[in-house]
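REVIEWER CHECKLIST
Item 1: Sequence provided? yes
Item 2: Single chain? yes
Item 3: Sequence as submitted:
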Amino acid sequence: MTPDQTNLFDGGTFEHKKDGARLRGQLLKVRELMRDGQWRTLGEIRAVVGGSEAGVSARLRDLRKEKFGARLVERRRRGAAGLAGDPKSGLWEYRVLA
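Item 4: Structure as written out by the authors:
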């Protein structure tokens, strides 16, 4: 995605003048942060890029779309299979692969 692609977002509540720059900026921040392939929770991503966890989750979904690069976004339960954290907490973490 290049910064001049302004009509990529859509949806029933999307208004380009009000939402376009914010969503585009957040998407670029999420993409840049996650390009290292490290596992992070929505809260950890939000703490760096700003916005809300719901917004961060939406941007991760966007990264899966063809028009945003069709990246592989993996998720796993934090604490599963011997990883640090409580697997019963319901906390998920994500990583983006090219």
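Item 5: Key structural point noted by reviewer: The beta strands are 40-41, 72-77, 92-97.
Item 6: Recommendation: ____
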